[in-house]
Amino acid sequence: MSARTFVPSLLVAFIVVLAACRKDPSMPNEDLGPTPLSLSYPAWADDGVYPLNLPGNNPLTVEGVALGRKLFYEKALSNDFTMSCATCHQQEHAFSDPRQFSIGTDGSVGRRNSMTVQNLAWDHVFFWDGRASSLEDQAFRPVRDPGEMRNTWPVVVERLQAHPAYPALFKTVFGTDVIDSVKVVMAIAQFERTLLSFDSPFDRYMQNGDLGALTEQQVRGMELFFGDAHCNDCHLGPRFNDHNLQNIGLGRHEPDIGLMEVTGLEEDRGRFKNVGLRNVAVTGPYMHDGRFATLEEVLDFYADNVDLATPNLDSHMFGWTLGLVDLDAAERADLVAFLHALTDERFLTNPAFSDPN
């Protein structure tokens, strides 16, 4: 072979080898990492006061949310494989528990009602007493709580590491198949941040101009809610909460001291997290201790039984201290009807939020 023939042949061979080394475009490129995900919600859901609280060290990804969803329903998190996050946070109840108090794996009865998991991507405090500052921090606790899952994180990690699917899933999300508790709660928190609810009859009435979405009674209740009933003083739209912990006058001698357990400050006695009212019709029983079985009982409390002599009564309760709230039976019924208009049926049945296992 002459030198003139050899050089072109060598060049062709090099091109062939280079092409063979290129990845098939139909195969996933692991070097690119997980797929970034942006939350999808209507523009009006941002109120301009409380921005989204998305931590920079745990960005949302398609694969991370999928892993978190699987872990949310994973019973290996509990000591005896009988309980998952979803046991006490059921989708059909807006990810809350219809029982007054949740039951631990050993039959232990909790002392506070299970909170909803919805629209928490904006929140900065978690639990009724605000003791957790992030969804990640919140997710750490039930696993080791002796009244809940009664497990230890080393046991959980060992189980997940030995699972045939989890190591590969963690590698896709976090770049390593070595599992630890931090990565577990980061994934769960990613999934929980996607649990958004903004498609109720009220939304269709207010935002889409669908005047048939609410009944006449619900419209009357809406006007009361944002007017003379002063509900909106604490439960601000569009998410119907205000991110504070408040004492609403449940009583001066309550055994549960709320935020005071965390801070030790007397001024925080009886202060509990303000919970958003979306889907409230399916999240009963109500209040931190589930003392009210129905929305009618809640309205009766606000109409007749707020303890105005409570030392730490929140300033948002000025409508009551000034004697401005006076609701008759018909108005209470109208308000209850309006609260039912905050139910988002698509959220409660969305297959993207259900058990993937």
> How many beta-strand segments?
2
Secondary-structure element string: HHHHHHHHHEHEHHHH
CATH architecture verdict of the largest domain: Orthogonal Bundle
Q: What is the H level of CATH, i.e. the homologous superfamily of the largest domain?
A: Cytochrome c-like domain
CATH topology of the largest domain: Cytochrome Bc1 Complex, Chain D, domain 2
In spatial order, strands of the major sheet run 1-2
Number of distinct helices: 14
Fraction of residues in β-strands: under 5%
The first-level CATH class name of the largest domain: Mainly Alpha
Total domains: 2
The percent of residues in helical segments reads 25-40%
How would you summarize what this structure contains?
With 357 residues, the protein is mainly α. It has 14 helices and 2 strands; from the N terminus they run H-H-H-H-H-H-H-H-H-E-H-E-H-H-H-H. The N and C termini lie far apart (64 Å).
List the helices and strands and how they pair.
Blueprint: H1 3-21, H2 62-72, H3 85-88, H4 135-144, H5 153-162, H6 166-174, H7 181-193, H8 201-206, H9 216-225, E1 245-246, H10 260-263, E2 272-273, H11 295-305, H12 318-321, H13 329-340, H14 345-349
Antiparallel strand pairs: 1-2
Helix pairs in contact: 2-7, 4-7, 9-13, 11-13
